[in-house]
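call fold(seq) -> C-alpha coordinates
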Amino acid sequence: MTKPVFRFAPSPNGRLHLGHAYSALLNDALARRFDGRFLLRIEDIDITRCRPEYERAIVEDLEWLGLEWEKPVRRQSEHFADYRSAFQSLQGRGLAYPCFCSRREIAEKVEAIEAQSGQEWPRDPDNAPLYPGICRELSPEEAMRRISSGVPHAWRIDMQSARTLHPGPHIFMRFLLSGEEEIVTADPWRWGDAVIVRKDVPTSYHLSVVFDDALQGVTHVVRGRDLEAATDLHVLLQKLLGLPTPRYHHHDLILDPGGDKLAKSRRSEALHELRERGVTASEIRQRLGFQLIPST
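ret:
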Protein backbone atom coordinates (compact mmCIF):
# COMPACT_ATOMS: atom_id res chain seq x y z
CA MET A 1 0.00 0.00 0.00
CA THR A 2 1.18 3.55 -0.75
CA LYS A 3 1.76 5.89 2.14
CA PRO A 4 -1.02 8.37 2.95
CA VAL A 5 -0.30 11.92 1.81
CA PHE A 6 -1.36 15.05 3.70
CA ARG A 7 -0.85 18.65 2.66
CA PHE A 8 -1.03 22.18 4.04
CA ALA A 9 -1.87 24.66 1.28
CA PRO A 10 -1.88 28.32 2.35
CA SER A 11 -2.23 31.37 0.12
CA PRO A 12 0.55 33.96 0.44
CA ASN A 13 -1.81 36.93 0.61
CA GLY A 14 -1.12 37.75 4.25
CA ARG A 15 0.57 36.49 7.41
CA LEU A 16 -0.37 33.18 9.01
CA HIS A 17 -2.42 33.20 12.24
CA LEU A 18 -3.27 30.58 14.85
CA GLY A 19 -5.93 29.02 12.63
CA HIS A 20 -3.32 28.30 9.97
CA ALA A 21 -0.94 26.98 12.63
CA TYR A 22 -3.59 24.55 13.85
CA SER A 23 -4.29 23.22 10.36
CA ALA A 24 -0.60 22.84 9.51
CA LEU A 25 0.19 21.12 12.81
CA LEU A 26 -2.79 18.79 12.46
CA ASN A 27 -1.77 17.72 8.95
CA ASP A 28 1.80 17.12 10.10
CA ALA A 29 0.68 15.19 13.19
CA LEU A 30 -1.64 12.96 11.18
CA ALA A 31 1.07 12.27 8.62
CA ARG A 32 3.33 11.18 11.46
CA ARG A 33 0.62 9.07 13.10
CA PHE A 34 -0.13 7.16 9.91
CA ASP A 35 3.48 6.99 8.71
CA GLY A 36 2.57 9.20 5.79
CA ARG A 37 3.99 12.14 3.85
CA PHE A 38 3.49 15.84 4.58
CA LEU A 39 3.51 18.39 1.74
CA LEU A 40 3.46 22.17 1.62
CA ARG A 41 1.72 23.71 -1.39
CA ILE A 42 1.59 27.44 -2.12
CA GLU A 43 -1.80 28.38 -3.56
CA ASP A 44 -0.97 31.69 -5.20
CA ILE A 45 -3.28 31.89 -8.20
CA ASP A 46 -4.48 35.32 -6.97
CA ILE A 47 -1.58 37.12 -8.59
CA THR A 48 -2.82 40.57 -7.52
CA ARG A 49 -2.83 39.81 -3.77
CA CYS A 50 -0.18 37.13 -3.31
CA ARG A 51 3.35 38.38 -2.64
CA PRO A 52 6.79 36.75 -2.40
CA GLU A 53 7.37 38.28 1.04
CA TYR A 54 4.26 36.54 2.36
CA GLU A 55 5.49 33.22 0.97
CA ARG A 56 8.83 33.73 2.71
CA ALA A 57 6.93 34.53 5.90
CA ILE A 58 4.90 31.30 5.60
CA VAL A 59 8.08 29.26 5.42
CA GLU A 60 9.58 31.18 8.34
CA ASP A 61 6.49 30.64 10.51
CA LEU A 62 6.22 26.93 9.72
CA GLU A 63 9.89 26.33 10.37
CA TRP A 64 9.54 28.22 13.67
CA LEU A 65 6.74 25.81 14.60
CA GLY A 66 9.16 22.94 13.94
CA LEU A 67 7.53 21.60 10.78
CA GLU A 68 9.32 19.92 7.90
CA TRP A 69 7.94 19.07 4.48
CA GLU A 70 8.99 17.51 1.20
CA LYS A 71 10.78 19.54 -1.44
CA PRO A 72 10.27 21.00 -3.94
CA VAL A 73 7.18 22.98 -2.97
CA ARG A 74 4.51 23.28 -5.67
CA ARG A 75 3.50 26.87 -6.46
CA GLN A 76 0.25 27.07 -8.35
CA SER A 77 1.22 30.27 -10.21
CA GLU A 78 3.90 28.23 -12.03
CA HIS A 79 1.39 25.73 -13.40
CA PHE A 80 -1.38 27.67 -15.10
CA ALA A 81 -0.87 25.54 -18.22
CA ASP A 82 -1.86 22.45 -16.22
CA TYR A 83 -5.10 24.02 -15.08
CA ARG A 84 -5.84 25.36 -18.55
CA SER A 85 -5.53 21.84 -19.93
CA ALA A 86 -7.87 20.46 -17.28
CA PHE A 87 -10.39 23.17 -18.05
CA GLN A 88 -10.20 22.51 -21.78
CA SER A 89 -11.18 18.89 -21.17
CA LEU A 90 -14.37 20.17 -19.53
CA GLN A 91 -14.98 22.81 -22.15
CA GLY A 92 -14.53 20.33 -24.97
CA ARG A 93 -17.35 18.20 -23.59
CA GLY A 94 -19.78 21.10 -23.26
CA LEU A 95 -19.44 21.24 -19.48
CA ALA A 96 -18.57 24.94 -19.26
CA TYR A 97 -19.69 28.21 -20.81
CA PRO A 98 -18.31 31.76 -20.79
CA CYS A 99 -19.90 34.32 -18.48
CA PHE A 100 -19.51 38.03 -19.20
CA CYS A 101 -21.59 39.26 -16.26
CA SER A 102 -20.38 41.57 -13.55
CA ARG A 103 -21.44 41.05 -9.95
CA ARG A 104 -23.67 44.07 -10.29
CA GLU A 105 -25.45 42.65 -13.33
CA ILE A 106 -26.05 39.37 -11.51
CA ALA A 107 -27.39 41.19 -8.44
CA GLU A 108 -29.72 43.32 -10.58
CA LYS A 109 -31.04 40.26 -12.43
CA VAL A 110 -31.71 38.43 -9.16
CA GLU A 111 -33.46 41.48 -7.71
CA ALA A 112 -35.70 41.69 -10.77
CA ILE A 113 -36.57 37.99 -10.54
CA GLU A 114 -37.38 38.30 -6.84
CA ALA A 115 -39.50 41.39 -7.42
CA GLN A 116 -41.48 39.64 -10.15
CA SER A 117 -41.94 36.34 -8.33
CA GLY A 118 -42.26 37.62 -4.79
CA GLN A 119 -39.93 34.83 -3.66
CA GLU A 120 -36.34 34.86 -2.52
CA TRP A 121 -33.86 33.58 -5.09
CA PRO A 122 -31.88 30.53 -3.91
CA ARG A 123 -28.37 31.00 -2.59
CA ASP A 124 -25.26 28.85 -2.54
CA PRO A 125 -23.48 27.66 0.64
CA ASP A 126 -21.48 30.92 0.71
CA ASN A 127 -24.78 32.83 0.77
CA ALA A 128 -24.26 34.24 -2.71
CA PRO A 129 -27.24 34.12 -5.11
CA LEU A 130 -27.10 31.21 -7.53
CA TYR A 131 -26.14 32.36 -10.99
CA PRO A 132 -29.40 33.10 -12.83
CA GLY A 133 -28.16 31.84 -16.19
CA ILE A 134 -27.85 35.14 -18.02
CA CYS A 135 -25.05 33.92 -20.33
CA ARG A 136 -26.00 30.24 -20.45
CA GLU A 137 -28.27 30.73 -23.45
CA LEU A 138 -25.89 32.85 -25.53
CA SER A 139 -25.26 31.34 -28.94
CA PRO A 140 -21.74 30.02 -29.57
CA GLU A 141 -21.34 32.67 -32.25
CA GLU A 142 -22.26 35.52 -29.89
CA ALA A 143 -20.05 34.16 -27.13
CA MET A 144 -17.10 33.87 -29.52
CA ARG A 145 -17.72 37.38 -30.85
CA ARG A 146 -17.52 38.81 -27.33
CA ILE A 147 -14.42 36.79 -26.49
CA SER A 148 -12.72 37.89 -29.73
CA SER A 149 -13.60 41.48 -28.91
CA GLY A 150 -11.73 41.18 -25.64
CA VAL A 151 -14.74 41.33 -23.32
CA PRO A 152 -13.61 40.11 -19.87
CA HIS A 153 -15.20 36.79 -19.00
CA ALA A 154 -15.12 33.92 -16.56
CA TRP A 155 -16.12 30.32 -17.26
CA ARG A 156 -18.87 28.58 -15.34
CA ILE A 157 -19.59 24.91 -14.96
CA ASP A 158 -22.81 23.93 -16.73
CA MET A 159 -24.55 22.01 -13.97
CA GLN A 160 -27.34 20.84 -16.28
CA SER A 161 -24.84 19.13 -18.56
CA ALA A 162 -22.80 17.84 -15.61
CA ARG A 163 -25.89 16.33 -14.03
CA THR A 164 -26.82 14.62 -17.28
CA LEU A 165 -23.33 13.13 -17.59
CA HIS A 166 -22.90 12.19 -13.91
CA PRO A 167 -26.25 12.32 -12.09
CA GLY A 168 -24.79 10.77 -8.94
CA PRO A 169 -25.06 9.93 -6.18
CA HIS A 170 -21.66 11.51 -5.53
CA ILE A 171 -20.08 10.13 -2.39
CA PHE A 172 -16.86 10.61 -0.49
CA MET A 173 -15.32 9.33 2.70
CA ARG A 174 -15.10 11.51 5.77
CA PHE A 175 -12.44 10.36 8.20
CA LEU A 176 -12.43 11.19 11.89
CA LEU A 177 -9.35 11.81 13.97
CA SER A 178 -10.16 8.63 15.86
CA GLY A 179 -9.41 6.72 12.64
CA GLU A 180 -13.04 5.85 11.89
CA GLU A 181 -14.64 6.73 8.56
CA GLU A 182 -18.13 7.45 7.33
CA ILE A 183 -19.74 7.72 3.91
CA VAL A 184 -21.04 11.16 2.92
CA THR A 185 -23.28 11.97 -0.04
CA ALA A 186 -22.25 15.21 -1.72
CA ASP A 187 -24.74 17.72 -3.11
CA PRO A 188 -22.82 19.67 -5.78
CA TRP A 189 -26.00 21.02 -7.37
CA ARG A 190 -26.50 23.47 -4.52
CA TRP A 191 -23.58 25.48 -5.90
CA GLY A 192 -25.33 26.16 -9.20
CA ASP A 193 -23.23 27.15 -12.20
CA ALA A 194 -20.14 28.00 -10.16
CA VAL A 195 -17.14 29.80 -11.62
CA ILE A 196 -14.35 27.34 -12.45
CA VAL A 197 -12.13 29.78 -14.37
CA ARG A 198 -11.82 33.35 -13.15
CA LYS A 199 -11.67 36.44 -15.34
CA ASP A 200 -8.11 37.29 -14.34
CA VAL A 201 -6.39 33.88 -14.35
CA PRO A 202 -7.00 30.61 -16.26
CA THR A 203 -8.24 28.69 -13.22
CA SER A 204 -10.06 28.99 -9.90
CA TYR A 205 -9.53 27.68 -6.40
CA HIS A 206 -11.93 24.81 -7.10
CA LEU A 207 -10.27 23.68 -10.32
CA SER A 208 -6.66 24.04 -9.24
CA VAL A 209 -7.10 22.38 -5.85
CA VAL A 210 -8.68 19.20 -7.22
CA PHE A 211 -6.07 19.01 -9.99
CA ASP A 212 -3.15 19.45 -7.59
CA ASP A 213 -4.48 17.04 -4.99
CA ALA A 214 -4.66 14.36 -7.67
CA LEU A 215 -1.30 15.23 -9.22
CA GLN A 216 0.46 15.16 -5.85
CA GLY A 217 -1.24 11.96 -4.74
CA VAL A 218 -2.95 13.58 -1.76
CA THR A 219 -5.00 10.89 -0.04
CA HIS A 220 -6.30 12.87 2.97
CA VAL A 221 -7.47 16.47 2.71
CA VAL A 222 -7.50 18.09 6.16
CA ARG A 223 -8.75 21.66 6.15
CA GLY A 224 -11.05 24.04 8.02
CA ARG A 225 -14.77 23.61 8.39
CA ASP A 226 -15.29 26.80 6.38
CA LEU A 227 -14.35 24.77 3.28
CA GLU A 228 -16.58 21.80 4.04
CA ALA A 229 -19.35 22.78 1.63
CA ALA A 230 -16.84 23.27 -1.20
CA THR A 231 -16.09 19.55 -1.01
CA ASP A 232 -19.41 18.85 -2.75
CA LEU A 233 -18.28 20.80 -5.81
CA HIS A 234 -14.79 19.30 -5.66
CA VAL A 235 -16.16 15.75 -5.66
CA LEU A 236 -18.13 16.53 -8.83
CA LEU A 237 -15.09 18.08 -10.55
CA GLN A 238 -13.05 14.99 -9.66
CA LYS A 239 -15.69 12.81 -11.28
CA LEU A 240 -15.84 14.98 -14.42
CA LEU A 241 -12.04 15.07 -14.74
CA GLY A 242 -11.54 11.38 -13.98
CA LEU A 243 -9.54 12.14 -10.81
CA PRO A 244 -9.49 10.18 -7.56
CA THR A 245 -11.42 11.49 -4.56
CA PRO A 246 -9.37 11.80 -1.36
CA ARG A 247 -10.71 11.26 2.11
CA TYR A 248 -11.77 14.49 3.82
CA HIS A 249 -11.68 15.87 7.33
CA HIS A 250 -12.86 19.41 8.12
CA HIS A 251 -11.62 20.55 11.48
CA ASP A 252 -13.12 23.12 13.81
CA LEU A 253 -11.94 26.70 13.40
CA ILE A 254 -9.90 28.71 15.86
CA LEU A 255 -12.08 31.62 17.00
CA ASP A 256 -11.24 35.03 18.40
CA PRO A 257 -12.60 36.23 21.77
CA GLY A 258 -15.70 37.55 20.01
CA GLY A 259 -16.54 34.14 18.54
CA ASP A 260 -15.52 35.00 14.95
CA LYS A 261 -13.10 32.88 12.96
CA LEU A 262 -9.58 34.19 12.61
CA ALA A 263 -8.97 35.78 9.22
CA LYS A 264 -6.28 37.73 7.42
CA SER A 265 -8.93 40.17 6.19
CA ARG A 266 -9.78 41.08 9.79
CA ARG A 267 -6.10 41.41 10.66
CA SER A 268 -6.24 38.64 13.23
CA GLU A 269 -3.08 38.51 15.31
CA ALA A 270 -0.38 36.87 13.20
CA LEU A 271 2.12 34.25 14.30
CA HIS A 272 5.01 36.64 13.83
CA GLU A 273 3.28 39.13 16.15
CA LEU A 274 2.94 36.43 18.79
CA ARG A 275 6.60 35.60 18.31
CA GLU A 276 7.55 39.28 18.73
CA ARG A 277 5.63 39.32 22.02
CA GLY A 278 7.83 36.53 23.27
CA VAL A 279 5.45 33.60 22.76
CA THR A 280 7.41 30.43 21.98
CA ALA A 281 6.64 27.76 19.40
CA SER A 282 6.29 25.24 22.22
CA GLU A 283 3.63 27.44 23.86
CA ILE A 284 1.75 27.68 20.56
CA ARG A 285 1.84 23.90 20.16
CA GLN A 286 0.60 23.39 23.70
CA ARG A 287 -2.13 26.00 23.29
CA LEU A 288 -3.37 24.26 20.14
CA GLY A 289 -3.20 20.78 21.66
CA PHE A 290 -0.29 19.28 19.80
CA GLN A 291 1.61 17.66 22.58
CA LEU A 292 -0.78 14.80 21.79
CA ILE A 293 -3.02 14.21 18.76
CA PRO A 294 -6.75 14.76 19.42
CA SER A 295 -8.56 11.39 19.53
CA THR A 296 -12.01 12.47 18.32
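The longest strand covers residues 37-42.
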